[in-house]
Amino acid sequence: MLRKALVLAAALLVGGAGSAIADGHIKYTGPKMDLSKFQPEFRVGFLGDEAAQDIITRNACFGPYLEAAYNVPVKMFTFKDYAGTMESILGGNLDYGWFGASGYAGIYLEDPEAVVPVLTRMQPTGDTGYYSVMVARADSGIKSLDDLKGKRLGFADPNSTSGYLIPSIELPEMYNVDIDTYFSSATFQGGHENNVLAVLNGDVDAGVTWVSGVGEWSEGYSSGNLRKMVDKGILNMDDIVQVWSSKLIPNGPIVMPKALPQEARDIMIGVKQWIHKNDPECSENVANGIVKAWVPVDHSFYEVVVKARKAKIEAKKKG
To answer: Domain range holding 241?
Structure first.
């Protein structure tokens, strides 16, 4: 069972701020509906993988567009960890969440009727996937997995696809690395940003995080956690090296409750595509970097990850 009663890190009613506003008016001509016939507000939840205020600030431009599209006030929430966002949407307290494939799998395995995958991001290359990578300090002398034997490994969050599930599966299966014995310790650092900061601070010797895997290394690739940290000025890519990369992982879905009318989900696809075309700056902020497009997606895209997470859960129960 997912943990309950997790504390909201932040919540606010979105007002007129950001690039959606010009001369006091919303410049939005995309698809619309009157959601007020079904509910009084639209609630957006974000994963707690960076500072709460940074999340809210970066996504501030998104709210006014949603208000224009749905004709209801928008509230945005952040949580202290992934489980909090998952529990909230399972409890019917959110109308929108963007999860990694493993997070979605966790929700689906808890309640297959809770949410519907709506759309996902497409990388500049046309791929609809990303990578888990392991990074270490550039001055550590660590250049490969071989150099990490007996060292400290940092994971991001138990419900993160790239920050836990995929490396915990691929390292044993593809590299014969038993995480419990190969590393001196393997600990969760409370999100992707915290995991990379733990590497920089010397709290762990290497940590896993997510990247697009395309674009310039010096910029933290085209998108992903490293790109966010570079853009925020808290990471210089010269200070780290990449020592491992996973196979391509399916990009995580934006999900919405199955209980919402289909029209609301269709509108979301149109909103995201409209913002991408008409407000690239806002689209990049919300997407954590550069994307080629937002494309519709369904459950079938995540069946492999659902099976992997289910197998992990069953293996843990067996001890």
So the answer is: 129-249
